[in-house]
Specification:
InterPro entries: Cupin_2 (IPR013096), RmlC-like_jellyroll (IPR014710), RmlC_Cupin_sf (IPR011051). This protein is mostly beta strands and about 140 residues long. The chain has a domain at about 30-110: Sandwich (Jelly Rolls). Helices cover about 0% and strands about 45% of the residues. It contains no helices and eleven strands. It has strands at about 1-5, 15-20, 35-40, 55-60, 65-70, 70-75, 80-85, 90-95, 100-105, 115, 130-135. A four-stranded antiparallel sheet has the order 3-9-4-7, with no helix packed on it. The chain starts with a strand and ends with a strand.
């Protein structure tokens, strides 16, 4: 992968990732076992299901994300979250012609994040609602 950064008219920096020709990986092979985080701007491409070891967590920032998991095909809007084991055939990209911006977390070896939807009960320790916490 290679990237370039651009500034929007509002002055926000946007990083756009592009695949390299030939066999490559967007995963950081130098730090196996660590959570890798990407803010991605995905443009239209044809769906191609893939599998690999690990676990992915996606959060839609802007636009609409199409997510294909096995035989399930769904769309997520801003604020939508998906998490899945990557041994399931999967693909994700824009649901329409417009680009989609996502926050993408990847953890190799099947470790998975915890997605909390409500605060912990009194006396129970953990992170506040909505925060990412990898399991030990």
């Amino acid at each position: 992968m290679w990237s370039t950064s651009k500034r929007t008219s509002a002055g926000a920096e946007v990083v756009v990732l592009y695949p390299l020709a030939g066999p490559s990986s967007s995963r950081d092979e130098r730090r196996p076992g660590r959570v890798q985080v990407f803010k991605q701007v995905l443009t239209h491409r044809e769906p191609k299901l893939v599998t690999h070891s690990g676990h992915e967590w996606l959060y839609v920032l802007v636009g609409e994300l199409r997510l294909v998991l096995g035989t399930n095909d769904t769309a997520l809007r801003p604020g939508g979250v998906a998490e899945f084991g990557t041994s399931t055939p999967h693909w994700f990209g824009p649901a329409h012609a417009e680009a989609v911006q996502i926050l993408h977390l990847f953890r190799p070896h099947g470790d998975q994040p915890v997605n909390r939807t409500s605060p912990c009960a009194p006396g129970v320790t953990g992170t506040p609602a909505g925060r990412f916490e990898p399991e030990s």
